UniProtKB/TrEMBL annotation:
PROSITE patterns: MFS, SUGAR_TRANSPORT_1. Residues 416-437 are annotated as: Disordered. The keyword Ubl conjugation does not apply. It is a multi-pass membrane protein. This is Na+/melibiose symporter. Keywords: Cell membrane, Membrane, Transmembrane, Transmembrane helix, Transport. GO terms for cellular component: plasma membrane. Residues 9-413 form the Major facilitator superfamily (MFS) profile domain. The chain crosses the membrane at residues 21-40, 46-70, 82-103, 185-204, 231-253, 265-284, 296-313, 319-338, 359-381, 387-406. Its main location: membrane. It is found in: Cell membrane. The lineage of its organism: Bacteria, Bacillati, Actinomycetota, Actinomycetes, Pseudonocardiales.
């Protein structure tokens, strides 16, 4: 595979992922800042916040189901079909959120409609990263797979930057304007996301690896017969995404709603951490192409487990300088060691015939658990002094992910055509038939 084609695919994955996850993360920001007042005003403030964060987690619950469906489509009919469909679904669902009536206008129908649209967002996200990662990995030069696949995740960080940045002027609006129309603007901007994303994604070609692969009639059945242990390993490892959801959703809500810190500085913590991550992710991925996936990933797990304690403590005492410094170190650097590596680390566990299914199902089940983390820790830590329990929970998740990867195999030197196979396996599946380009 030529380097120029790898760069083109990585750029397309970066832009598409940024656009897709802009949609997904503006929901999280809105859930932390306004949904408790707009859709759940009948509840007391603490319960309203808990309910709003729970709707954020609902999107993650839909992702495992979507992973089974879109994984099958991607391995059976092509990665490109999945990438175009996910972008359309995400854009339409997100735009519709911005058009919803509030609880005061429509009563209980308003939060019900919100949950339905969040489910559709989750279905879309379930195939997005697995499709983009599979395509980037299969186009990449064998000695730089982590570097090129990492652009999907740096695109995700760019989406978070856009999602947070667009809320900066919105959050600065007077409270009445914010709750009446201001919060809707970021959701309406998804119309632009759809148009730009479709133009980019329609120009992407399928990979040569995919065209040469043997198509399985039921890729998911083949996956669980030949790679069930790797699926389980990815599920456990992917729960590390709890660090992201706790940082971007819970910590923001805790700072603003519980401690009483200003919205704008806390939003800037996320923006600056993600700016640092844009550079850190490809750099750390490139490091793993030289020294291996496991050392970099495990170092990231350990650093996140340690840094979450002083970060939440700094919020609890309202020390803005410490919040900024520790937030950037935690999410911009330490978590980037995980984000930069997992697209190649997980993808290299599976053969081409089941790669998209394996990555989608494994990550989305793990991410579904991570998506519920803000709700779980909100129940744990509903008061100013409860940050220690939340930090301990987060560190335990980091340890679980580290164990899952530490007990796996190292794959960074293995040829792409041999990924996901034992030395005794033939590259031709007994259940497959030749795929025609």
């Amino acid at each position: 595979m030529t380097t120029s084609m790898a760069r083109k695919t990585a750029l397309a994955a970066w832009i598409g992922s940024a656009l897709e996850y802009y949609d997904f993360f503006i929901y999280g920001t809105a859930a932390a800042l306004v949904f408790n007042k707009v859709f759940f005003p009948a509840a007391d403030p603490a319960t309203g916040t808990l309910l709003a964060l729970a709707t954020f987690g609902v999107g993650y619950l839909a992702r495992p189901l979507g992973a089974f469906v879109l994984g099958h489509v991607g391995d059976r009919f092509g990665r490109k079909k999945v990438l175009v469909f996910t972008l359309l679904l995400m854009g339409v669902a997100t735009f519709a959120v911005g058009c919803l009536p509030t609880y005061d206008t429509a009563g209980v129908l308003a939060p019900v409609a919100l949950v339905v649209l969040r489910l559709l967002q989750g279905l879309s996200a379930s195939g997005e990263q697995a499709g983009a990662n599979s395509m980037s990995l299969e186009h990449a030069p064998e000695h730089r797979r982590a570097y090129f696949t990492s652009f999907t995740l740096s695109g995700t960080q760019a989406g978070q930057i856009l999602a947070t940045a667009i809320f900066l002027p919105v959050a600065a609006l007077p409270q009445e304007d914010l709750l009446s129309w201001g919060w809707r603007v970021p959701f309406w901007c998804s119309a632009v996301v759809v148009v730009v994303g479709l133009v980019i994604r329609r120009k992407i070609d399928e990979t040569a690896e995919f065209k040469r692969a043997k198509v399985a009639k039921l890729p998911v059945a083949t996956l669980f017969r030949t790679h069930w242990a790797d699926v389980l390993r990815v599920v456990l490892a992917a729960t590390i995404a709890s660090v992201s959801t706790i940082f971007t959703v819970y910590a923001l809500s805790y700072a603003v709603n519980t401690i009483g810190l200003e919205r704008t500085p806390m939003l800037w913590v996320g923006v600056l951490a993600n700016v640092v991550a844009l550079a850190a992710i490809p750099a750390l991925a490139g490091l793993s192409d030289r020294i291996g996936r496991k050392p970099v990933f495990l170092a990231g797990c350990g650093a996140c487990a340690v840094l979450i304690f002083p970060y939440l403590w700094s919020i609890s005492i309202g020390a803005y300088a410490l919040v900024f410094a520790l937030g950037i170190l935690l999410f911009g650097v330490a978590y980037s060691a995980i984000n930069g590596i997992w697209p190649s680390l997980y993808g290299e566990m599976f053969s081409t015939e089941v790669r998209l299914s394996g990555m989608a199902i494994g990550t989305q089940i793990g991410f579904a658990i991570a998506g519920l983390a803000p709700s779980v820790v909100a129940a744990i830590g509903s008061a100013r002094e409860d940050w220690l329990g939340v930090a301990t929970f987060t560190a335990a998740v980091c340890a679980l992910s580290a164990v899952a990867i530490a007990t796996g195999r190292e794959t960074f030197k293995r040829p792409t055509a041999e990924l996901g196979r034992t030395t005794r396996e033939s590259p031709v599946s007994s259940t497959g038939s030749v795929r025609t380009a």
